[in-house]
Amino acid sequence: MRQKPVLLVIAHGSRDPRHAATVHALVRRVRSLRPGVRVETGFLDFNIPSVQGVLESLAAEGVRDVVALPLLLTRAFHAKADIPAVLRDAPPQLRIRQAEVLGPAPLLLSALERRLYEAGLTSADKSSTGVVLASAGSTDPEAIAVIADIAREWWHTGWCAVRPAFASAALPRTEDAVRELRALGCERVAVAPYVLAPGFLPDRIARGAAGADVLADVLGAAPEVARVLLERYDAARVPVLTAVGA
């Protein structure tokens, strides 16, 4: 029986130790949901093991098939350039398929709502609450457009209003979106970080949420996020293609 491809979760990495801890917690949840799949973690920068190091170790073990999954919410520079470049340098005996990024996905909206409810809101608060969908930001216009689309989609589920905001590279900032929702007349304002793990930019989002009534936690190891990872893995693993760039 042919072995299932190894799932290699590729995270950006950070000097902030909370980032790697959150990534590892998410990977543990993925393993618990799919015990028959081997799941490894590699980092692009700052943390170990590196993506290249994991790929070399897998090749040395005789692994042939790998699904490389970018732990990213939008398809921006890292998914389009950094990760493909690393995968092109993988040992030639590995057959690698790069999975799609996590977002957008309906399950991620469910995870955002989970975090808001954990922060104190209830479903009865939706129609009177404005939400800031606060992402890290990007210089990639495709990624910015996706965040705006998600905000519009989420608004249609019953919130008073939903506005996108960005911690870097694009406007508006979180604090500006909070003020806008106040001006619209929403009874309360909540900030929902559309980020996976703590770090420098999520901390900036938190500072910008000082004028809000509710600040949700990052998505982290929410079960919905783990399920999206497995959906992306399943979509990518059949069929497993030849090595990246081949």
From TrEMBL:
This is Cobalamin biosynthesis protein CbiX. SUPFAM superfamilies: Chelatase. Gene3D superfamilies: 3.40.50.1400. It comes from Streptomyces dysideae. Keywords: Lyase, Metal-binding. GO terms for molecular function: lyase activity; metal ion binding. Transmembrane segments: none annotated. The lineage of its organism: Bacteria, Bacillati, Actinomycetota, Actinomycetes, Kitasatosporales. InterPro entries: CbiX-like, Sirohydro_Cobaltochel/CbiX. The keyword Metal-binding applies.
